[in-house]
Design brief:
The chain is α+β, with helices and mostly antiparallel strands. The protein contains 15 helices and 27 strands. The strands form seven sheets. The protein has an eight-stranded mixed beta sheet with strand order 2-14-23-13-3-12-11-10, sandwiched between helices. Strands 1-6-7-9-8 form a five-stranded antiparallel beta sheet, with helices on one face. The chain has a five-stranded mixed beta sheet with strand order 20-19-21-15-22, with helices on both faces. The chain folds into two domains: 290 residues, 3-Layer(aba) Sandwich (D-Maltodextrin-Binding Protein, domain 2); 213 residues, Dipeptide-binding Protein, Domain 3 (Dipeptide-binding Protein, domain 3, Roll). The protein is globular.
């Protein structure tokens, strides 16, 4: 299979991950600038964008935290880009690429005019060093390593041509090459320690990191001479904005108040309860559902009562997802109906499997030997039916689930922790449930999350049938054949309750009128390259 598209040529449809059918991604990008627009000549091109939390790590190859990626996307370009509406994959740093029929090698040709912000050129050797370093990072770059599953090295042909080789078919690498997880960083950056990379990165992006003060702010400035945006962007040349200041404002009411007062031009994460408040002509709202695995209870079946499938099934039947969406969701969102979000290519509607059935939940438990205690919680052999979910965000979602499960006799305890402690729990396996989702524009997200061979494995599942299917879909190029496998995977994961969905997360951000051109990428992360300040 050969894909060759000259720079700025008319885009053609490129099969998403070797041809998997594409589903349109839900959402809107209100306030997007007309590509023909230009910033107001008399208006300062500087904005203040309030973040909801400290980014913790600015290295896009190491992080999966949305706040970090909002900053990292502005600093880092990728080999390829993906249309968020169609799934079409197009050139970016690579002007063309070829995929072998057996999906074990990907040959890229780089643009010859790209440099990093430290002045060094983008070469095949630097790209190879990036991929080699990701493998060396191991668990610190778990998502990136997932895309490089079976990585067998990068063969350098010359300064602009190289081939990435895999020991087994790797269907997800092409889409992975569009993500920030495989974004390309300078040779000096990838040679640094994991800790140092979190504090400072050098990329080829339209902005350059000026400063990062932990728990205070991040400052980025326009990259002089930038002229290699992907064909999906709205203009060519340098970014319109001269600078973006990212103060870290953890209190939602302070962010929304600052947007109203004009202290902030843009804010991350408009609270869903305030969505209608900012749906006026004075503001723009930017809403997009995350593709991938929805917010879920991700199961560790290796310990405690969650080894019992009946208990897991009772939990999934005890959740009223429509009510959770009303309580904790966005007006732009919907209740999950599968273990993949409805905006994910390859999604299969399993609403019947995930239907709210509290009586069915109790019947399952009683048929499994559980007895309802005087406190309203089921027990067996003197032990209450108590499970703990470890999470670092979406506490309101988990509290709604906690109330609903108590009504059917299941005691869900919440363990809200810092981001580092969450990933520490994953590393140690010390958890019952994880409260989280995984954003990915491909159904391979389920392999990343559940496979015993995945460096980014979160759910702990011992299921040989599922493992075989997860590996098979990752090595299947035929679109229809892969879809059949993906359908079966979703059915198994939902029916055996290895992933118990709670809410489809919608990224919801807001800006004042006068800030135009904020757009989403295919993973619902933000591009500020086309953003401008215009006259009122």
């Amino acid at each position: 299979m050969t894909i060759s598209i000259p720079r700025r040529a008319r885009r053609i449809a490129v099969p998403l991950t070797a041809g998997l059918a594409v589903a349109a991604l839900a959402g809107c990008t209100a306030g997007s600038a007309d590509p023909a627009s230009t910033p107001g000549a008399d208006v300062a091109q500087d904005i203040v964008f309030a973040l909801k939390e400290d980014p913790t790590c600015l290295d896009p190859q190491q992080t999966s935290v949305t706040t970090s990626l909002i900053v990292g996307r502005q600093l880092t370009d990728s080999l390829l880009d993906q249309d968020p509406d169609t799934g079409e994959i197009v050139p970016w740093l690579a002007s063309e690429w070829e995929v072998s029929d057996d999906l074990t090698s990907y040959t890229f040709t780089l643009r010859d005019d790209v440099t990093f912000s430290d002045g060094t050129p983008l070469t095949s050797e630097v790209v190879a060093a990036n991929f080699d370093a990701i493998v060396e990072l191991g668990a610190s770059a778990s998502l990136a390593n997932g895309y490089l599953s079976g990585y067998a090295g990068t063969e350098i042909v010359d300064d602009t041509e190289f081939t990435v080789n895999f020991s087994a078919p790797n269907v997800q690498f092409q889409q992975g090459a569009t993500t920030m997880s495989l974004g390309i960083l300078s040779a000096e950056t990838v040679a640094a320690s994991a800790e140092d990379r979190c504090q400072s990165v050098v990329g080829t992006g339209p902005f350059v990191l000026d400063s990062y003060v932990v728990n205070d702010s991040v400052e980025i400035v326009k990259r002089d001479g930038y002229d290699w945006a992907s064909t999906l962007r709205g203009h060519e040349g340098e970014a319109y904005l001269d600078s973006v200041s990212f103060p870290i404002i953890t209190e939602p009411s302070v962010r929304t108040g600052g947007l109203e007062s004009g202290e902030y031009d843009v804010i991350q994460d408009v609270p869903y309860v305030d969505e209608s408040r900012f749906s006026t002509d004075e503001y723009h709202l930017y809403a997009k559902a995350n593709p991938g695995v929805p917010n879920s209870l991700i199961v560790n079946t290796s310990r405690g009562v969650l080894a019992d499938e009946a208990v897991r099934q009772a939990i999934t039947k005890g959740l009223d997802r429509d009510q959770i969406n009303v309580i904790a969701g966005s007006l732009s969102g919907q209740a999950p109906t599968s273990v993949l979000t409805s905006s994910t290519p390859g999604y299969t509607d399993l609403g019947d499997v995930l239907a709210y059935d509290p009586e069915g939940a109790q019947d399952l438990l009683e048929g499994d030997g559980w007895t309802l205690g005087t406190d309203g919680i089921y027990e067996k052999d003197g032990q209450p039916l108590t499970v703990t979910v470890t999470a670092f965000y979406a506490q309101d979602v988990l509290e709604a689930a906690q109330i609903q499960l108590r009504e059917v006799g299941i005691d869900l305890q919440l363990n809200m922790v810092a981001t580092g402690d969450f990933f520490g729990a994953i590393a140690s396996g010390d958890y019952d449930l994880l409260g989280a989702g995984l954003t990915r524009t491909d159904p391979d997200a389920l392999r990343t999350l559940l496979s015993t061979a995945s460096a980014a494995r979160w759910g702990i599942v011992d299921d040989a049938e599922l493992e075989g299917l997860l590996q098979e879909q990752s090595q299947t190029a035929d679109a229809e054949a892969r879809q059949e496998i993906v359908d079966e995977i979703q059915q198994i994961v939902a029916e055996r309750a290895y992933v118990i969905p709670t809410l489809e997360t919608v990224q919801l951000h807001g800006s004042r009128v006068g800030v135009e051109g904020i757009t989403f990428d295919s993973a619902a992360r933000l591009h500020l390259y086309d953003t401008m300040v215009v006259s009122d």
